[in-house]
Model the fold of this input.
Amino acid sequence: MTLSIPVFDRLGGQSELPLPTYDEFFEGYLRLNRPCLLTFPLSPAFYQWTVPHPTSTSDQNSPSTKSPNRKPNYAHLKAKYGTSTVHPTGADAPMDFKQFLERMEQGDKGIYLKDWHFVLEHSNEGANAVYEVPLWFGDDWLNEFLDNQGGKDDYRFVYMGASGTCTPLHVDVFTSYSWSANLCGTKKWTFFPPSQAHFFTKPPGCSITDLRLISPETHPTYYTTTTPITVYQHPGELIFIPSGWWHQVENIGETISINHNWCNACNLQDIYRNLESDLAYIRESIAEFRDEMGEDEWSEHCQSILKANNAGFGYDQLWRFCQFHARRLLRLLAEPGHDIAASPWETPKCILFSVGDLLEVWQTLVGDEWAQRKLSREEIDLTTLEDLKSAYKSIAGNR
Done:
């Protein structure tokens, strides 16, 4: 069986396509949900956290040596952040970051520092002290929302591990986008488009969880019907991972990366559909207890399971998320000279798109039984939604 393999663009490097403008990235990758790789060192972390590491004994044709390699700047990292407490995967207990670095330096592949909320824990340094978010990923509705909810959680992470560490096959939390900036080492990514998700979502025990553990003998269907895309990410390169793309990441050499999960209007419908389908499955699975528990308790129990499955994100969080960004967009539209964009995602075209997609998701959410019950009790209201509808009619009519 032959399936078409999507093109994976490499941008900004020698003999590659040039780096896109924001509008080109918006139209060609965000809206189309297409992955890509961009040559763009994440500063200043790239130059502060790593140092050159010549690979004179390596095969220069190897994927891991396509570009000059770098290694962790252990002295700087220990001096600057050594007393921070981290929770590496595979470790028996939390440890000082300095202890982790010493084990990483020794090549310990049994522990891997994943999902370290570095920005959250070091917010006193200032937003851009360690790195600036690249322009293409600046319209981040998820982290902006969380920052305005008290700043107790975020989706900005640091990953560090010795050669051989790995993040097994997965899709990102609630089908969000993600981006990953590689600072040193090489990352081997294996991607699968959303159309092939059914190969990896079978019942526990039947699904594939780690590509390193399968073979044509154990999983013949995988080898004959999937179209994996393998990409090697080198120091100073960014990868954009769109919504719903399954992927596995293997580290070659001592590796440090900075990763964000994020979303905006372009993938908001994907996020809602993911929550909606998960909730439908939950409701069906425990439907037999509905009468016994009563409507209120049963509905809240469904939401509790939904939150547990989606990193704490349920319909109440989604409602507040929609309300927050609606008010933000309305404030933006009310500003004098709002048609002169301060950021490339605040152009009239992008605002119209954002308002339209936000409206579509929010109005669908209003039709759900959860929202109808909340409305009947006046626990939520539609004032901001109605204001957004009026604004959309106005700006759409002026185009």
